[in-house]
Amino acid sequence: MQAINIHIFGHVQGVGFRYSTQLIAKKHHITGVVWNVSDGTVKIEAQGAEADIEHFVAAIKANPSPFARIDQVIVTAGTVDENRRTFRTI
Question: Any idea which residues are catalytic in this one (predicted)?
């Protein structure tokens, strides 16, 4: 199990980005959470099998929302939370 944090910069709020992220997470068996930050960015905490995480990150970088514009994606190591069973938006 691997955990990561992703910080997305660009025009990513109010364009369905969190919902699209949730769909991709479910497709790749990822648990975690995605939320809007007050500075206009989006943050994601995600965890899953290493191969699933790689596919998830690639899908996020490919821009899952047709109305979003991603300027920068920063991925850092996270901490596994064994209690997470779903992927949700907040």
Answer: 18, 36
36 catalytic? Reply is yes
- Out of 5, 36, 84, 88, the active site residue is 36
**Nearest Cα to 25, choosing from 1, 62, 52?**
52
Distance, CA of 73 to CA of 25 (rounded, Å): 16
Class of residue 82 by CB neighbours under 10 A (exposed 0-12, middle 13-18, buried 19+): exposed
Hey, what are 72's tokens?
A: 């920068």
Tens-digit pLDDT profile for residues 5-39: 999 999 999 999 999 999 999 999 999 999 999 99
Residue 19, beta-bridge partner list: none
- Contacts of residue 7, defined as CB under 8 A and 6 or more positions apart, other chains included, come to 41, 42, 43, 44, 73, 74, 76
Region 2-80: CATH code:
3.30.70.100
18 is catalytic: yes
The number of residues making up the chain comes to 90
